[in-house]
Design goal:
This protein is 41% helix and 6% strand. The chain has two helices and two strands. It has a two-stranded antiparallel sheet with strand order 1-2. The chain starts with a helix and ends in a 7-residue tail after the last strand.
Length: 100
């Protein structure tokens, strides 16, 4: 029984690491509440974040027509406003012509 529990905990830890990596790469967050009260508090924070959301347009320095399919392009988003927290994905992969 202990082996099964340890295996379960190891797999859970690995899953959390994968989800954390995906969240970080895409500019998101992962929430792992321990209690329903904590979950409700995090839900309120999420609702506040959604209410303060902006849409930002992006124009690459080099046009997509000169990029290779599958090329990874980094994105850096910064604000001139002090105290502002920004979340964005780290980059994107240039799609093939028929995926656009």
């Amino acid at each position: 029984m202990r082996r099964k529990r340890k295996a379960y905990e190891d797999e859970t830890r690995k899953s959390e690491q994968v989800l954390t990596g995906i969240a970080e790469e895409t500019g998101g967050k992962i929430f792992l509440p321990i209690s329903s009260d904590q979950m409700m508090g995090e839900a309120k924070d999420i609702a506040a974040d959604i209410g303060a959301e902006y849409v930002v347009t992006y124009r690459p320095k080099r046009p997509l027509s000169s990029a290779k399919v599958g090329e990874y392009r980094k994105i850096e988003v910064a604000s001139r406003r002090v105290g502002l927290t920004l979340h964005s994905r780290r980059g994107y992969v240039v799609p093939s012509q028929n995926q656009e």
